[in-house]
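Q: A reviewer asked whether we had any structural model of the full assembly, not just the individual parts. We don't, so I'm hoping you can provide one. Inputs are below.
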Amino acid sequence: MINFKVPFVNLSAAFRNDAQAISITVDEIGNSGHYILGAKVKKFEEEFAAYIGTKYALGVANGSDALFLIMKALGIGPGDEVITQPNSFIASAWTIVATGATPVFCEVDETLGLDPEQLLKLITPRTKAVMPVHLTGNPAKIDEIEALLSGTGIEIIEDAAQAVGAKFKGKRIGSFGIAAMFSLHPLKNLGVLGDGGVITTNSDEMYDKIRKLRNHGLIDRDHCEIWGYNSRLDELQAAVASIRLHKLDESTSNVRKIAEKYSSELSNLVTLPKSYLGAEPVFHNFIIHTKNRDALQSYLYQVGIETKVHYPVPIHLQECAEPLGYKVGSFPISEYQSTNSLSLPIYPELTDEQVGTVITEIKNFFKKDL
Amino acid sequence: MSKNFLPSQYENDEKFSVQHNYLSQQFSDKDLILEKIKEVVTRGDFTLGREVDKFEEAFARLVGAKHAIGVGSGTDAIFLSLRALDLQPGDEVITTSFTFYATIGAIVTAGGTPVFCDIGDDFNISVAGIKDLITEKTKAIVPVHWSGRPCEMNEMIEISEEFGIPIIEDACHSILAEYHGKKTGTFGITGCFSFHPLKNLNVWGDGGIITTNSDEINSKIRLLRNHGLVDRDHCEVFGYNSRLDTIQAVVANHLLGKIEAITNARITHANYLDKGLSDISGIEIPQRDAELKEVFHIYSFMAENRDALWEFLRENGIDAKIHYPIPMHLQPAAHYLNYKKGDFPITERIANQTMSLPVHEFVQLRDLDFMILKVKEFYSHDQF
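A: Here is a predicted structure for the entire assembly that you could use as a starting point for your response.
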């Protein structure tokens, strides 16, 4: 393993800060003997709903399951279509396939979000939902999407896996559609010690259905109303999520400062992240675009800076997507992003010195290059 | 927000002197586990980390299978096994109605239609009944080694081979159980295990594992459990997300050193209850078979006037349970399958009469004597 001066993530630092609090709460759980759907999950759900500003939050096993369960609760299945975007993580698509429905991809724009102008053309009588992804924690054009779908009966499911804490026009992401999903995967802004996810919703009906679906369809120990799934947020992970939720705004403001530094220093050299008017992003990733992406990445690697590409192969060009019939050229902007984007290290534990190193080295690269 | 259904089986009710739930006692040595979890935190390998690899290898060795794949839960283990067989909507899966909801939930989620088979006096799927249920659409047989008692595997394998229909073992109750000296989880194309907090090998949340001797199924399930990814950037098949957490693997690794002792304690307690209860009229204990090693995840028997006995035992501080009073074919969820009362007489009779007593490793000899005494007392009142 290479020892980077600036690693892309530093999970051990992130969790070391909370080690004592986590250790105490794990101890409590061990003493209580409650590991599943107990008081810690309930507490976290209440805190998270209050934070997002929704009536309900439901802890589930992971972010992917959250999307899957939302779609199942909406009755989405074979013959239905769900629209999402091709520049996302693969789970945005497979969760649709897992319900039996067909994913339909919509081109994105320079904010990395779904382009509402392209959306209209894709709607058919089979369209049951649109799943905009707030990629990198950068809010999608949610008001335009809402306006377009208003009165159509097509539901909006927010894929907010990367967007915990982000706002649009003062309102938290995760409170716009019929339901939203968040991921608590360790790499996320609100990460736990393993897999975890949350669903937020204002709908009593969705809450009721998902609460059954995540726990075998049970209405009590002995009665199963619908064949369900097993997808529960562990007590342990809920306890960690509660601890970290209290610090989320602070860590978000730290990453925003890093984003500002990158932006002010690199604006002449690369294309910076763009946000839609009224959007307050949370920078799960800080994605720049440059024609010299591969050369820049390998230069940074050589000088000890780890970067990533989110994602080098768009979903519509993955092997698994072959049956869907897309080809190279189907989504030029998404494809452009996959070959020109680079994610710079960004997390609250990054020191000023490390941020400075990244900026200096990117400048050095372009000096040499030009 | 108080509507959340918190399953009552996790409640540690002070009113019981003999408890079903023993979790607070079990991890008295949790500091050892916490130290290991700290190491995971330092490494940051929370997802499919080193401890998962270690556990998978050790578990495969323990059971005697070539591969073991850690997944999110026992439910997911069954679901992913069926997905690995490429089950298509409308395909039929033969299973037992006398099981936990998850067996059926997994079949339905995978796109299958459950086809129920009656059980025998051993509470397990009646192998003789399977043959009659096979159609062109049958794609799998999912036997459940209920309570930790192995099903009749020799005959089932004959049927499986004759018709070319794979067996997926629901071994969620049966870690270390043996059929003719061979462990459950090694007979089918896969074996599915659960590490739910109430299982014999239990972690601190949800967890499961799949065993298999097939290299092909192993590779397929490893893809399916992790988004279908062959590497970070390439997705070969649309998959799922179902992984055993690294920190849960730490707990599981810790318990591997104890699972023999845990199992032996359960067997000893069960044998003791067998002896003490066998001559009570009103009680019918399943016939034991010397060729089977039962691991007693649940210790159950048939009881006349069961509901009154249950109430009587609970009044006397014994946390007796019913696993489970309503079989799957009579659940509201099964309505669309058009089964009715009377379809599976043995299943229904057992569901009406089954009674479970605690036999976990923290049950004391005096608890066992007390339970026997109270059952005797009930039937002496009851009869005379």
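A: Points you may want to mention in the reply: The radius of gyration of chain B is 21 Å. The domain at 258-383 of chain B is CATH 3.90.1150.10 (Aspartate Aminotransferase, domain 1).
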